[in-house]
Write a sequence for this structure.
């Protein structure tokens, strides 16, 4: 069965960076995209960006103004999301989600979420 | 980049039907048949309940249905049950290979 397993919770100071991993299993890794979505406490879902796991091409939301870097390691079936210059309002649960195959543009499987707390 | 607009909350009694709207622009909802809907129970990851505007994934109750007209998509829950109490988000593909979520709607079963 398809599974996305994320790395554990992180506590970071303002200005630091955080790197979260998302390990995929149960399907052919390079045939799908992986998206990153975050949710601040009590707030809505916010799309951050995605990577084509096959060719490594990425696209990021303009909201993050170059602070987000998404990479993948095909040998480990793992996608990484690096967020730099952290601020207190980056405190959120970060999810990875698989993009549906074919022409559908939805997210069919989600990781369990990683809580990132930014605090001095 | 603005979010899609949803009502903050919608309520109904068990057995009733409710509808949640999701309003965007011609660059997202109105321009593509790529609206999806997600159910999120607090503390859990979202779950897709509708994709490609009106398609239910296998295993999702047929009490959930959806449609789109112009720049507004809608999700209807029929025969409302207590287990439907959750937050619901729409999402759409947006011009430029981007995606956007809605503001979210809390469904309250009275």
């Amino acid at each position: 069965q398809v599974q996305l397993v994320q790395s554990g919770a992180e506590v970071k100071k303002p200005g630091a960076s955080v790197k979260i991993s998302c390990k995929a299993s149960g399907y052919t890794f390079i045939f799908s995209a992986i998206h990153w979505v975050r949710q601040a406490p009590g707030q809505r879902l916010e799309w951050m960006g995605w990577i084509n796991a096959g060719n490594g091409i990425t696209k990021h939301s303009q909201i993050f103004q170059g602070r987000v870097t998404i990479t993948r390691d095909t040998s480990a079936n793992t996608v990484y999301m690096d967020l730099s210059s952290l601020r207190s309002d980056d405190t959120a649960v970060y999810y990875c989600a698989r993009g549906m195959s074919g022409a559908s543009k939805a997210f069919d499987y989600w990781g369990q979420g990683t809580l990132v707390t930014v605090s001095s | 980049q603005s979010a899609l607009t949803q009502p903050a909350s919608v309520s109904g009694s068990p057995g009733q039907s409710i509808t949640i709207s999701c309003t965007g622009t011609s660059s997202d909802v109105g321009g593509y048949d790529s609206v999806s809907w997600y159910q999120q129970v607090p503390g859990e990851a979202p779950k897709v309940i509708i994709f490609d505007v009106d398609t239910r994934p296998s295993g999702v109750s047929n009490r959930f249905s959806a449609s789109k007209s112009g720049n507004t998509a809608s999700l209807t829950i029929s025969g409302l049950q207590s287990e439907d109490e959750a937050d619901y988000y729409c999402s759409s593909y947006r011009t430029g290979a981007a995606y956007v979520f809605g503001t979210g709607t809390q469904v309250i079963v009275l």
Notes: The first strand of chain A starts at residue 3 and ends at 6. Chain A is about 0% helix and 50% strand.
